[in-house]
């Protein structure tokens, strides 16, 4: 017999009432604000921070809330939002592959063969021959002995860093590193030091103070996701060798963008043999979801048995693995796609600079349009959306207070007409708000 919960007054005892009509848990909503649980809400100390959080509501009240915009179409150069077609300049799909028919066919075929999920971790029952094929293809691409797949890129950084950096060890990271790197460093049992953005003299000075015999890992983004600049990897590797430290590069925003066949930062600089660990994700250029770590075979085997975010998480779905493998094949076989990405980047960048916008030190298809004011940044984002252009507003903690920006990112599949349309609208809104 199905049962129904009735909302009671505080003076009544909690009871279960048999329904006259079966309760539908999907369509029914139970209001439990006056239920027997008198400990709900801000009276619980652990929840006070949640109830004191007002920033999102302040943006909503001002009509400037820009997050969780619901897209009702494929992720492409144009998307549908609230029944309107909007030009997408906020996507990480650098190669424009998320709607590629061959990739969708590969994902569909994988579901037909393997089903929708693996129902377990890679460590136990969740390893498919498809996972191994993708690992081998990635190893060939980045010039590594072995590769290990994770379900997300965030899990790669959590699992790898915390597994390698133990008590008595040190991990050092750039202050502009992605949040997943910072969380992996915080999770590690060793000591965590941060150095100013791309300040390798500061990194060298910090390493000078550490125990020469201690384990040391330097972790950096290859391409920084907000600034769009690139780590000076050859000099960083020189410093690492000087101090007997290992180097780990996060290539989430470099894969498919720089290096031979889009293989990343180490290839871009010709220092593949000097980087001990390379991390990457599939959610950007490779049109899927998941992540990987590349290294020597012994280190990868250690991580298979010690990276907890791998061992205790369900493995990457068959559809995602097949999509990433198909995207990888397209990326390698169609190098002109990367060339188009860079042509589009140069066109947009030169247009923005000629209008008088500040793009900082960006060197990549990530173009940070610095506004340096919180309210103006979010107002500009809203106005551009109204004009038919989707961009991302970036504020603290993603960037320091006072460095607020609009993050634009190019795809290989953007047309010249779309770029020119964007420049026209950004110029209009920028002048309207006094940014230029």
What does this structure look like?
With about 425 residues, the chain is α/β, with parallel strands linked by helices. It is about 35% helix and about 15% strand. The strands form 4 sheets. Strands 5-11-10-9-8-6-7 form a 7-stranded mixed β-sheet, sandwiched between helices. Strands 3-4-13 form a 3-stranded mixed β-sheet. Strands 12-15-14 form a 3-stranded antiparallel β-sheet, covered by helices on one side.
SSE topology:
Elements: E1 4-5, E2 16-17, H1 48-52, H2 55-61, E3 78-81, E4 84-88, H3 101-114, H4 129-142, E5 146-150, H5 153-164, E6 170-174, H6 179-187, E7 191-195, H7 200-208, E8 216-221, H8 233-242, E9 246-250, H9 265-269, E10 277-281, E11 291-295, H10 297-304, H11 308-311, H12 318-333, H13 336-355, E12 366-370, H14 374-386, E13 389-390, E14 392-394, E15 405-409, H15 416-432
Parallel strand pairs: 4-13, 6-7, 6-8, 8-9, 9-10
Antiparallel strand pairs: 1-2, 3-4, 5-11, 10-11, 12-15, 14-15
Number of strand elements: 15
- The portion of residues assigned to helices is 25-40%
Q: Quick one: overall form?
A: globular
How many strands, which pairing sense, and closed or not: the largest β-sheet?
Answer: 7 strands, mixed
Total helices: the number is 15
Radius of gyration: 24 Å
The H-and-E topology, N to C, reads as EEHHEEHHEHEHEHEHEHEEHHHHEHEEEH
- Strands of the widest sheet, in order across it, are 5-11-10-9-8-6-7
Low-confidence stretches: 1-38
Strand fraction:
5-15%
């Amino acid at each position: 017999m199905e049962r129904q919960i009735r909302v009671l007054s505080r003076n009544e005892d909690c009871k279960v009432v048999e329904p006259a009509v079966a309760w539908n848990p999907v369509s029914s909503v139970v209001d439990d604000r006056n239920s027997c649980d008198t400990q709900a809400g801000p009276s619980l100390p652990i929840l006070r921070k949640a109830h004191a959080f007002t920033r999102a509501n302040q943006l909503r009240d001002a009509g400037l809330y820009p997050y969780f915009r619901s897209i009702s179409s494929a992720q492409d150069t144009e998307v549908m939002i609230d029944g309107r077609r909007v030009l997408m300049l906020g996507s990480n799909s650098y190669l424009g592959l998320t709607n590629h028919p061959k990739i969708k066919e590969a994902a569909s075929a994988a579901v037909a063969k393997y089903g929708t999920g693996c129902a377990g971790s890679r460590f136990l029952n969740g390893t498919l021959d498809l996972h191994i094929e993708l690992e081998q293809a990635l190893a060939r691409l980045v010039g590594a002995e072995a590769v290990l797949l994770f379900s997300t890129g965030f899990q790669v950084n959590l699992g790898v860093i915390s597994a390698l950096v133990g008590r008595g060890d040190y991990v050092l990271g750039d202050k502009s590193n992605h949040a997943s790197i910072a969380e992996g460093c915080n999770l590690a049992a060793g000591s965590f030091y941060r150095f100013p953005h791309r300040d390798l003299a500061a990194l060298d000075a910090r390493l000078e103070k550490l125990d020469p015999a201690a384990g040391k890992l330097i972790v950096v983004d290859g391409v920084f996701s907000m600034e769009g600049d690139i780590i000076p990897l050859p000099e960083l590797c020189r410093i690492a060798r000087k101090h007997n430290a290992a180097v780990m590069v996060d290539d989430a925003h470099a894969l498919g963008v720089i290096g031979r066949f889009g293989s990343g930062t180490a290839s871009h600089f010709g220092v593949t043999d000097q980087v001990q660990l390379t991390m990457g994700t599939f959610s950007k250029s490779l049109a899927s979801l998941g992540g990987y770590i590349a290294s020597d075979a012994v280190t990868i085997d250690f991580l298979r048995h010690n990276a907890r975010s791998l061992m205790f998480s369900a493995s990457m779905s068959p559809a995602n693995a097949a999509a990433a493998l198909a995207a990888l094949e397209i990326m390698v076989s169609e190098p002109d796609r990367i060339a188009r990405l860079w042509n589009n980047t140069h066109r947009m960048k030169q247009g923005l600079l000629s209008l008088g916008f500040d793009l900082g030190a960006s060197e990549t298809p990530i173009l940070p349009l610095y506004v340096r004011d919180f309210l103006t940044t979010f107002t500009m984002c809203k106005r551009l959306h109204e004009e038919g252009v989707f961009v991302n507003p970036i504020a603290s903690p993603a960037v320091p207070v006072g460095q607020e920006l609009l993050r634009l990112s190019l795809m290989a599949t953007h047309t010249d007409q779309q770029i020119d349309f964007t420049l026209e609208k950004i110029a209009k809104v920028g002048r309207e708000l006094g940014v230029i």
